[in-house]
Write a structure and sequence with these properties.
single chain, alpha+beta, 24% helix
Length: 152
């Protein structure tokens, strides 16, 4: 699959696999949230160029979803390659709000708004966004981190 950043939106293609689906052959809705978590990891690694694994294991910081709002618009089926999208809506003191979704061709399948907070594994509390990450987030939001399609 491939990823791309255009202006202030990150795109990542995703094959809808058998393991994502219910007996009707459509994505079982909780799997979208697993996909969105993977999308955030890919966004960190490919668009922000911040190593997500190091963020978790070395810096001992996490990004749990603390608020989710979503609309399921149309089903996605096994075998389809959907495009997941991510746009940074807000940068707060210790949290960010993302607009994410899935599309196939021009048909929207799901839209969601995710709020993620920076969480310290040591204190078990939200902490301010680190300055280096805040700088990358701001650059992304301002469309300064364009990357062409690349294999993920």
């Amino acid at each position: 699959m491939s990823t791309e950043t255009k202006k202030d939106v990150f795109y990542s293609d995703m094959l809808v696999r058998f393991s994502h689906c219910d007996p009707a052959g459509i994505i079982f809705y909780p799997h979208y949230f697993v996909m969105f978590n993977g999308l955030v990891e890919d966004w960190f690694n490919h668009a922000l160029e911040v190593n997500y694994a190091d963020f978790i294991t070395t810096r001992r910081l996490g990004l749990p979803m603390v608020n989710i709002k979503c609309d399921f618009i149309a089903p996605s089926k096994i075998g389809e390659v959907i495009t997941l999208t991510l746009k940074l809506e807000r940068i707060g003191k210790s949290s960010i709000t993302l607009a994410v979704g899935a599309v196939l061709d021009s048909q929207t399948r799901i839209t969601a708004q995710l709020t993620l907070c920076v969480f310290s594994f040591e204190t078990k509390r939200a902490v301010p966004i680190p300055d280096d990450l805040r700088e990358r987030l701001t650059d992304f939001q301002q469309g300064k981190l364009d990357h062409p399609w690349r294999q993920a």
